Each structure stands twice: as C-alpha cells, then as structure tokens.
C-alpha cells in the first residue's frame, strides 16, 4: 500500500513526488515511456520555472541538461499587424528529455520509488483506497490512498475521469540546419492569422533552427507551415540547408475563464495539463511545477487524509497560479484578435 501513486514523470509529477517523499510519505511514481523520453517542447524555462526548480529540488539546474545557447533572454511577440513586443526576462534553454530525467532522478534520491515504461491503465476508487491497474512487462495492480494524475493533455486517466475535458491544439515543428537574421537568445511567437490558427514560433536549440506552427485543425498544419516558412524567408532571411527531423504534439485548448479540473472529488487529483493549467504559447512548465507541488502539499497538510480538506487545500494552493494564468491569457488577447475570446 502506497500513500500516493503519481502518474507521469514530467515537471508536475516530479515536483509532487519529491514534495511527498520529503514529507515522509511512501510514493510510487510511474511513467508510460522509458526515460529519458522525448517531449515536444521549446525547453524554455522562464525565471519562475528556474526559481521553482531551485526551491523544490534543492539545487541549481545542472549544465548537463542545458542546450546551446543555454541563456534565454525572453520572448518576442509579433502581433496581428506585425508589431513586435519584446518581453525581457532572464531564463534558461534546456533539453526537455534531459531535464525531466534529472528531475525524476532527484525524486528517486529523495526516496520515491520510480517505474518508467509503466502505463497507468485505470483507477478504481474504493472507500479506503484506490486500486491502480498498471502495465509494464505484464499487467498488475497497486493500491494507494491517493493518486495524483499528471499524465498530460492526452493522458489515459485524465480522459477517462476528468469532467470538462479540453479540446486540442495540434503542434508541428521542424529542426533545421541553416541561418537566420534573428537573435538565438529569444523565443519568437508569431500571432498573425495567416501564419497559424493558434501561433507560429521560432527558436534556436543546439544550433538547430526550430520552426513550428499550431492550430486547432490538424488538417491545416501543412498549409500554415508552408506559409510560415515563406514568411520567415522573406522577412528574416531564413535559409534552410536541410531539415533533419520533425515532431508533432498536442496541448489543451484553454477556454474563457481558464476552467480547472482539480480532480474527481475523490481520491484522484489532477495536476499540470491534465488539470488544465497552461499559460499562453504553451508555457506549461512553471504551472506544472507549481500545481504538482500544491497537490502534494494539499495531501501532506490534511489531517488523516481528509478528502474535503485536501481539495480545500489544493484549490487554495493554486489560487494565485490560476489568477496568473488568467492574467497571461488576457494579455495575449490584446496582441491578437484570435484570442479576443479570452478577455
């Protein structure tokens, strides 16, 4: 019998797991893929993310997880009419596969039992505990008093149990060798409607030029990508010598008011994208870290695992995080008519 089973070994899962282990709880963390595993992500850590990692995991982010250039100086938004707005902020650029693997290793050092290559198939809530069906080399079950589900936007547990499941934004990005007239220390987000149904972006990682587009309509991705590449060649002298790889992903489509699925009101709590936490332009690492920790803290502070108190603690613990998320979406609504519905 575990106190808590954490599903997913991303920033939300790792921050929840290490908090609980440090507080003396018996924790099992499972991850569907074998670590280190790829996650389609910019890998940009804003200052808030860097500070949270230092606080929760007790040390600075190691150079071994950094990409080149490792320094990120902020974000540049290009609005509907082509106006550029630069938001300066010192941050870091990392490889997500290496970062998540390091976070998981720190959780293990704190006493978390970790099983990668292990998928959570289902959860059966009972009066005194919850039975979790897992699949590794074989199918088997484990029991815990609580589950913190951090299995992402497309996670099995979230889709089986969460109310008000969000729609999807589909993303596509390519890794290219070449040159461009843009500062590699910034992340660029293009909001012009002709370039993407959601946004398009450019950043540099390990000398790769990364071009990406996102849309709620999967069938329009190729069209938007071709338009975006043409735009980058015309306006920023982009030269692509060769495309070396590409990847696709999804993220939740956030609705007005930024609704959050806190959990089942029973023994399963949602955190990260599974709960609906996501800042504009797909910045989810800071909110994942904070809400994963808050979920763990809510359990840790509740007397005798009192259900009502846990949910009161959790909602209180993420109240400012949700308010920050709402402010960020209102800000982006002023940059593009596509996001006017988020005002």
Helical fraction: 25-40%
Q: So how many helices?
A: 8
Strand content: 25-35%
Q: Give the full name of the CATH homologous superfamily of the largest domain.
A: FAD/NAD(P)-binding domain
State the strand order across the main sheet: 3-5-4-11-12-13-10-14
Rg:
20 Å
Give the C-level CATH assignment of the largest domain: Alpha Beta
Basic shape: globular
* Element pattern in H and E: EHEEHEEHEEEEHEEEEHEEHHH
| Largest β-sheet summary | 8 strands, mixed
The CATH architecture of the largest domain: 3-Layer(bba) Sandwich
Briefly note the structural class of the backbone: alpha/beta
Please tell me the overall pLDDT. 94
The total strand number stands at 15
Q: What is the CATH topology descriptor of the largest domain?
A: FAD/NAD(P)-binding domain
The tally of domains stands at 2
Give the N-terminus to C-terminus distance in angstroms. 46 Å
Runs with pLDDT <50, length 5+? none
Feature tags:
seven-stranded mixed beta sheet; 8 helices; eight-stranded mixed beta sheet; 2 domains; alpha/beta; FAD/NAD(P)-binding domain; 343 residues; 30% helix; D-Amino Acid Oxidase, Chain A, domain 2; globular
Description:
This protein has 343 residues and is of the alpha/beta class. It has two domains: 2-54 and 95-166 and 254-342, FAD/NAD(P)-binding domain, CATH 3.50.50.60; 168-253, D-Amino Acid Oxidase, Chain A, domain 2, CATH 3.30.9.10. The protein has eight helices and 15 strands. The strands form two sheets. It has an eight-stranded mixed beta sheet. Strands 1, 2, 6, 7, 8, 9 and 15 form a seven-stranded mixed beta sheet that branches. The longest helix is centred in the C-terminal third of the chain and has 17 residues, at 285-301. The termini are far apart. The model has no long low-confidence stretch (mean pLDDT 94).
